[in-house]
């Protein structure tokens, strides 16, 4: 998943690492060396794989786009499924809508806290000297206090304020693209627009904005985290990002409060005096969350417009459907495939006995294809009447804090394409991200055509 280094984002040499960073690398190596890799030698799951042998954690399922029939089988036959053998250890897979809603509604029983394992299928360390705490990986009341600090950056009034900027940058970008010539939609549209928005949101130096994409790709790559060679490189890149942001953080704290998110955090009671690890953790969350959700939804929009031409024609005929099409695009794409919870006590879940300490993986991309909730769930239907019921942003206290901003950016992209009577037409093979967490695209060759 991770991109190649930019000239301005080279990783630091070993001689520049602090003792703390060296300890982190040593812990990561011990963690990777202790993994059972025998599960990687088994064939990828298919619809014919016996239920007991299904492991949906393999990233190739998603990069090869073969996950749909496997999850359909799990939803039909075993929606709360136990996988006893994976590279991430044993885990429960929740694959249908109702069990996921149930778990999300009980955050005291099903924890997101990093001290209990964290919020992805990859276990976080419970060693406080090695952890990267972030508010999505906290339970109440810590989560409530820290989330409240960043929430004002995503209110309806803030979206109204940002609308003009988003629209101007989107229009300018579309007008710069060649009509009728092939280019990469992911690189030249999805990444460019989301990176620019992150830079504005953080008050990040514009000339260095592409570092945000580079850092985000490595931070969100939980597959690379397990690799003996890529794991240490990922650690160095994360600390490089921390060093850069710490300088910005110091600058914001020494300045008067401003409208950007870094300034809000620096001057808040809940986050203003956080230590280095909390700081990096929350920055990581906001960068990865802000980048991947919007970027992969924008790429998904281009893919769906090509795969479902009859729905594209509906949208062309009635631009009033755009707002609903935004929700439908996010539902069908589901840019983050899963989140994870850990049971804090023995409990029963839809007929299954869950033990304290066991890992539950909430497969949002499967719940968003649940046929009992979304009729004809594998199709992009721009006038679907319940598209907003999707779980791509999660549910409950951990629902994505930046959901409105992701929706705004995607809506503006649809509107500005419609205003120019342009659509992206795929011209070659689309490459997908090799990840069980970030569900998206690495490249998508297209050409813009007039209609």
Automatic annotation (TrEMBL):
<keyword id="KW-0479">Metal-binding</keyword>
<keyword id="KW-0560">Oxidoreductase</keyword>
<dbReference type="GO" id="GO:0004497">
    <property type="term" value="F:monooxygenase activity"/>
</dbReference>
<dbReference type="Pfam" id="PF00067">
    <property type="entry name" value="p450"/>
</dbReference>
<dbReference type="GO" id="GO:0005506">
    <property type="term" value="F:iron ion binding"/>
</dbReference>
<dbReference type="InterPro" id="IPR001128">
    <property type="entry name" value="Cyt_P450"/>
</dbReference>
<dbReference type="GO" id="GO:0020037">
    <property type="term" value="F:heme binding"/>
</dbReference>
<feature type="compositionally biased region" description="Basic and acidic residues">
    <location>
        <begin position="14"/>
        <end position="24"/>
    </location>
</feature>
<protein>
    <submittedName>
        <fullName>Cytochrome P450</fullName>
    </submittedName>
</protein>
<dbReference type="GO" id="GO:0016705">
    <property type="term" value="F:oxidoreductase activity, acting on paired donors, with incorporation or reduction of molecular oxygen"/>
</dbReference>
<keyword id="KW-0503">Monooxygenase</keyword>
<dbReference type="InterPro" id="IPR017972">
    <property type="entry name" value="Cyt_P450_CS"/>
</dbReference>
<dbReference type="InterPro" id="IPR002397">
    <property type="entry name" value="Cyt_P450_B"/>
</dbReference>
<comment type="similarity">
    <text>Belongs to the cytochrome P450 family.</text>
</comment>
<keyword id="KW-0349">Heme</keyword>
<dbReference type="InterPro" id="IPR036396">
    <property type="entry name" value="Cyt_P450_sf"/>
</dbReference>
<keyword id="KW-0408">Iron</keyword>
<feature type="region of interest" description="Disordered">
    <location>
        <begin position="1"/>
        <end position="24"/>
    </location>
</feature>
